[in-house]
Amino acid sequence: MHVFLAGATGAVGRRIVPLLIKEGHRVTGTTRRSEKAEFLQSLGAEPVVVDAYDRDRVREVVAAARPDLIMNQLTDLVVYDVAANAKLRREGTRHLVDAALAAGVRRFVHQSLGWIYAPGPGLADEDEPLDLDGDAARRSLVGSVLEAEQAAAEVPETVLLRYGLFYGPDTWYAPDGLKVDEARAGRLVANRDVTSFLHVDDAAAAAVQALDWPSGPVNVTDDEPAAGTDWMPVFCRAVGAADPAISTEERPVWVRGVANRKARGLGWAPVYRSWRDGFTAF
Ligand SMILES: NC(=O)c1ccc[n+]([C@@H]2O[C@H](COP(=O)([O-])OP(=O)(O)OC[C@H]3O[C@@H](n4cnc5c(N)ncnc54)[C@H](OP(=O)(O)O)[C@@H]3O)[C@@H](O)[C@H]2O)c1
After folding, report:
1. Do 113 and 162 form a contact (C-beta atoms < 8 A)?
2. Most buried of 27, 32, 209, 253 (most Cβ within 10 A)?
3. At the top level of its lineage, which domain of life is listed (predicted)?
4. How many CB atoms lie within 10 A of CB 226?
5. Atom 37 of ligand 1 has which residue's CA nearest to it?
């Protein structure tokens, strides 16, 4: 299959390329910077330089590649800027979908998020309602995720990968990552919101398997969603930091854990089943 991978240089994209090549697929991989083209070539991809905000250029490169499938792994998160990322999620996805429809591409695999479900008991499956009634920041996050998912679903066959929170090499939760710096500076505060983690290698493996999955959302997370009060002390100890402060804020739990039953039923299984093992493998 010929895959057009938008975001091929990112933390997950750069892991997807070699896996696709190993399975015999052809990959056209995007970057905004011509100096990264050689890196993509070294992974086995055919590089194409394009900015996702440039609607005409996106159309042009997709039409020229004529792929069987477009995979959207675009994010704008090197600097922690949720507004920039939400804008890219909305506009970048829109441009890729328009390009897919114009070029007659019938399959789309889209990077989405798992921490978007409304509060409720237990772990959330894919058919649970989304959290559209939270505070302004929460509504903005969930709204932008939903808008991008709805755009992606305009392509006839679309898999929505509702990923957990990445950790591992090249992420915020890596030995040289942003969150390690925050932990060592004593800036992490643990609360009872539940995080569903995902090792970035397991995220890449799921994206490759999703080439053949049926359309619809799939939660892709590890097996042990955990409250901040459980995972954060383990993370801090793993990176040689003091235990985090515990939040004294009185409020209900906002973020709910996510069930990975559907992904497991489709044949995917995390190599890193729990952040407990993953953090200590740092
Ligand atoms: N589910 C999650 O937890 C999750 C998901 C995604 C990211 N993150 C975190 O975010 C951090 C940064 O992620 P990252 O290293 O993947 O970097 P990133 O800056 O988020 O970039 C990801 C990909 O998107 C591309 N990109 C960004 N803006 C673009 C634009 N306007 N047009 C076209 N392509 C664009 C980048 O390409 P070029 O820069 O080569 O142009 C890159 O290939 C990491 O800590 C990662 O773990 C977390």
Report:
1. yes
2. 27
3. Bacteria
4. 18
5. 31
Task: Say if strands 226-227 and 194-195 run parallel, antiparallel, or are unpaired.
Answer: antiparallel
Listed as own residue / partner, the contacts of 181-185 with beta carbons closer than 8 Å and 24 or more positions apart are 183/235, 183/236, 183/239, 183/241, 183/244, 184/239, 184/240, 184/241
Q: Would you say 234 and 167 are in contact if contact means Cβ atoms under 8 Å apart?
A: no
**One-letter amino acid of 153:** A
How far CA 281 is from CA of 71, 97, 135, 173, in Å, comes to: 29, 38, 36, 12
Q: What is the pLDDT of residue 82?
A: 87
Mean pLDDT (the chain, rounded): 95
Q: What is the CATH number of domain 2-165+199-221+258-270?
A: 3.40.50.720
Q: What confidence tens digit (pLDDT) does each residue in 236-270 have?
A: 999 999 999 999 887 766 788 999 999 999 999 99
Q: What is the pLDDT of residue 252?
A: 67
Query: Residue whose CA is closest, atom 25 of ligand 1?
Result: 7
Nearest to 116 by CA among 25, 53, 196, 213: 196
Ligand 1 within 6 A of CB of 52: yes
> Which pLDDT belongs to residue 137?
87
Structural domain boundaries in the chain:
2-165+199-221+258-270
